[in-house]
Amino acid sequence: MIRKAPLKMNRCFAAGLALLFSDFFVSSASAQTLPAPNLSLAQTSSSDFDWGFNTGFDYVSGKYGAKCALASVSLSCNSTGTTVFVIPASAMLQIQRLRVGVTVPYVDIEGPGHFSGNIGIPVIVAPDTTDPKHRSGLGDITLDTAFILHREDILLPRIEIAGVIKLPSAGVGLGTGKTDFSAGVNLYRTLAPNLTAFSSLSYQWVGDNNTIRIYSGAHATAGADFKFFSLGLGGIFDYRQSAWSGASDYFTFDPYVTWRMPGGLGISVYTMIGLTRSSPSQGIGTRLTL
What domains lie within the chain, and their CATH numbers? Predict the structure, then answer.
């Protein structure tokens, strides 16, 4: 989450401590970040000037729909799972209705799966061999921006247009080496004094890695957040169209809790519940916000 100075893995472990769109337990005048899995992607603030910083970790593990290597024709082959650990650092600046941000992650991957980076959710595709591999280093840097088209009123929710660019800064085995793009719209609606609903719809243009074709596709989220004194409770459904041939669509439910501590320091903790074969088997993460 991001808080006004005196905030996306996120998304999750399978993606740089990147994830994450709104820190709903801070005041309405402060910049916010969504709960997992988009903790690194800040939502625009209602103030005319704001800035913030967050960091944490994301951990995700699973086979992501891969029962064996893509090159294998054996009916009895097995694939070990792939585990991704990400530590991101995110910063945000907002002037008037425009917000810009940057996330720089450290990524550690163990397993045969290919990690293609993160522009809202991490994309991990089936391995081309069953040999487990370990690699770590700087991940793909992401630049994100959003602009408020309409502030919430009695008839309409707050409407934002948003975009993300993933730069090919990752080391060998930590990304595709391609520049990816995402563009979409975010909606926020106050349902009650302490209850906010949010959703997003975007399209992601992603590049292939050297051995596997990765598909571009739609990405959607929907969730709600409830404030109770210094605590925030909520959850988010996260969906993406199939990222590679033979895989089902990615679909998870991510419950979370946030706590604003004295002095302005905030912390968020979330977990991931995979709802399809291509989703992580397990995931957990946290964000520390200033």
Answer: 32-289 (2.40.160.40)
